[in-house]
Amino acid sequence: MITLFIFTIGIVIGSFLNVCIYRIPNEQSTIFPPSHCPCCNERLKPLDLIPIFSYIFLRGVCRYCGSGFSPRYALVEFLTGIVYVVIFKKYGLGVEFIAFTYLMTLLIIVFFIDYDHMIIPDVVVLTGLVGGVILIIYQYIHPISFYENPLSLIIGAFTGSGFLIFVSIVGMVAYKSDEVMGMGDVKIFFPIGIFLGWKMTLIALSIAVLTASISSIILIGLKYKNRKSMIPFGPFIVIGTFITILWGQELFDLWYQFTFGNY
User: Fold this and answer.
1) Strand pairing partners for 36?
2) In this structure, what DSSP letter does residue 121 have?
3) pLDDT in tens, 16-30
4) What one-character DSSP code corresponds to residue 26?
5) Do residues 200 and 157 make contact, with C-beta atoms less than 8 angstroms apart?
6) pLDDT at site 174
7) First-to-last CA distance in the chain?
8) What 3-state class would DSSP assign to 84?
9) Confidence of residue 176 (pLDDT cuts 50, 70, 90)
10) Residue 3 — φ and ψ, nearest 5°?
């Protein structure tokens, strides 16, 4: 029952994330006006807003004008519910669960906005930093076993971002370009670094770079992209962070053993 409850909470929050994903890039309020059909502007009733089920029962169309809704709405709701359940199964109900679901909630927004618009809004970064500061204070008062010490969180804030700034500078010099990497990618690693700590941030960054590189090679090989095409890095940051939340310590131990052996 607790798993179903967690999933339900996740899909309800996922419904709000759909609002954020649509409205934040358009600089619209996420609260007002209430949810409405983007085609006929008819305000949606409670029965139209039941996560996942309303989309299924209404067959993906507005009951008032018949215009179609993107299946992404249901996908985001379902995805958020699954993410919440997976983190719950890994950590149970505790501070780690609250911290990581908070982070992943913001990163789901990042994933879809960056995919659509190739931007990571500052409001999402700032919201993450607020949560990160609260986490640092909590870690000082009541240490969480996931982190080595409070300093690890503070160092983590600058680990991933510092590396990406370095890569961006090198890329601008090498390619003689004004921008090689978006600053949104750099900024989002500040809150990510706080929530993961510096060691896990390195793991998340490595996975993000690896998956982005492999995807770019595949897309170029299939002629969907060329070497000059811009590919959003945000989704890969989100994937790398989620994998790290679940298996970061195991991956770090595996890397350490492979690198240093028994020494």
Assistant:
1) 43
2) -
3) 999 999 999 988 888
4) G
5) no
6) 65
7) 46
8) helix
9) low
10) -65, -45
Q: Give the C-alpha separation, 102 to 230, whole Å.
A: 29
Tens digit of each residue's pLDDT (9 = 90 or more) over 70-125? 899 999 999 999 999 999 999 999 999 999 999 999 999 999 999 999 999 999 99
The strand pairing partners of 43, in sequence order, are 36
**75 close to 21: Cβ distance less than 8 angstroms:** no
Q: Kindly write down the DSSP assignment for every residue of 146-174, as one continuous string.
A: TSS-HHHHHHHHHHHHHHHHHHHHHHHHH
| Tokens 């700034």 sit on residue | 165
- The single-letter code of the amino acid at 64 is Y
Amino acid at 11: I
Instruction: Quickly tell me which residue has 């996942």 as its tokens.
Output: 52
Residue with tokens 């199964």: 89
Structure tokens at 38: 């983007």
What residue type is assigned to position 93 of the chain? L
Q: Are 20 and 59 in contact (CB under 8 A)?
A: no
Collapsed DSSP state (helix, strand, coil) of residue 100:
helix
Strand pairing partners for 68?
Answer: 61
SS3 assignment, position 262: coil
Least Cα distance to 133 among 102, 104, 90, 166 occurs for 102
C-alpha dihedral sign at 65, 45, 18, 117: positive
Tokens, residue 235: 């989704």
Cβ pair 201, 177 in contact under 8 A: no
Q: Residue 92 gets which letter from DSSP? A: -
